[in-house]
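User: I'll paste a sequence; please echo it back and then give the predicted structure.

Assistant: Echoing your sequence first, then the prediction.
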Amino acid sequence: MSITTLIFKELRHRILGACISVLTITIALTCLVASMEAMRSYDLKTEQQLAELDQKTKETNQKLNDQIRKTMKGLGFNVHIYPATQQLSEVYAQGYASETMPEAYAQTLADSSIVSINHLLPRLSRRILWKENNTEIMLIGVDGQVPISHRNPTKPIMQPVPPGSAVIGAELAKQFKLKVRESITINQQSFTIHQIHPPRGTIDDITIWIPLKSAQNMLNLPGKINAILALGCNCTSIDRLGTIRKELKTILPNTQVIEIESKALARAESRNKVREESERTRQNIVTSRKQGRSDRQAFVTLLTPLILIASLVGLFTLCLFNVRDRRPEIGLLLSMGIPSSKIFTLFLGRAALIGCSGTLITLTIIFLLDYPLDHYWDLALLAPLLTVLSAWLPTLTAARHDPLISLKQD
């Protein structure tokens, strides 16, 4: 009779003990799988929470970015570039820079790889006496915006003043009863009124805009400007102005930058605050989940050895009782010339088959619970190893026992 046939007959003859052993190993493996699955599920939940937070933050920032971009563009230029030698106190006091710089600076910026500003507008401005009307005005010479070479064309914030034309502030138009398409003379130069701005409540109401070349000729400053206006990007950097200055220093070292505060900048700051708050929330989630995982891991680390030890003890006890009950039978087999190695193989094969049966039942439970089987195929080795290990010592003792003593006890 083959050893395999003996193993199955052995299991069938002592079915109760075999079932108890299979149940023991199944319970042990199921507890291990449950603890491992709890950890995996916890990690997946953490990843899901972080992914949802990241997506929500991304959507919020996108909406806020669009609002900021539209608002900042509507409020106009917020970055002013002046010559490095210009006293800013003078700019704040009189509203323009007395120092000048080459008009070519604007094109140099446009041809560079600068990313922190856009919508470049060179201009030349002065307070002058409008001799024909004996009144002081702000004269601003501007052309169109200088397109930045490495970016797609964008809609300009300020439309250019057509050649030979002038744009008039609301107060000047009201005071001198000026109308669109009417001709005016400014210090012996003739212009056609192209547009009259509505009241703005600022110095713009007493300002006249003319083409840059005309202003340079009138002020005897050919090829000169005293400012470049730009729109600062909505940088994520906390020190946005520092970022702009750092870029400009490498491109136009003989300039300085100021940023005009506005509601748009406050909106830009709110974007950074949303980002910072999101990062804090994310870090809190990570910290909280990490602590929770650590607590669960400590529990699993304690539980796993206990389960393995308990299952080993249980299987060892069952096998020990089985061997003790069958000492006379083992003694008879040995006295009949059956080699101890065959008896050894019989009991260990029985233990291995019990372990395989427990593994099969456990994998079935995993499948029914819809757990990923690929995480648990190593159980196919663990369970037979546990059962063989628990049966090793009792089987070895029985196989080496003197058959005369066993028969005598019988």
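The chain is about 60% helix and 15% strand. Residues 70-75 have pLDDT under 50 and may be disordered.
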